[in-house]
UniProtKB/TrEMBL annotation:
The keyword Transmembrane helix applies. This is Uncharacterized protein. Keywords: Membrane, Transmembrane, Transmembrane helix. The chain crosses the membrane at residues 94-116.
Length: 118
């Protein structure tokens, strides 16, 4: 919908409605823009894929998965913390390896790449 904003405001003061200009909202210390935490979102989806893990959750209730994910330790700050795949460096390396003409080495690298992506 073109009338809905692309962000969500979170009011920590528990007001039912906000009547303010954007500049006044910017100055309000109880209004925040909700931001998704990438690592926690990934952890939530990984937990949802494994029903055997969901059965052994330490928390109960409908928010048990969220509580479980929030209880885990991880980097929530939007920084580059080294969480990247080695495939990023392996694909260019594989291209240069193919230029050497060594078929056995290239086939081995392709198999390793296929196993890493599986």
């Amino acid at each position: 919908d073109r009338f809905l904003p692309t962000y969500v405001l979170v009011d920590l003061w528990c007001r039912t409605r906000l009547f303010a200009t954007p500049d006044e909202m910017y100055e309000d210390k109880y209004i925040f823009i909700a931001q998704a935490m990438q690592m926690r979102t990934w952890m939530f989806h990984q937990l949802a894929k494994m029903p055997e893990e969901m059965a052994g959750l330490h928390f109960e209730g409908e928010a048990a998965m969220v509580q479980e994910v929030l209880s885990q330790s991880c980097v929530d700050a939007p920084v580059r913390n080294g969480a990247w795949s080695p495939i990023i460096s392996m694909i260019p390396m594989l291209l240069f390896l193919a230029l050497t003409g060594d078929q056995i080495l290239t086939a081995t690298a392709l198999i390793v790449l296929a196993l890493m992506t599986y």
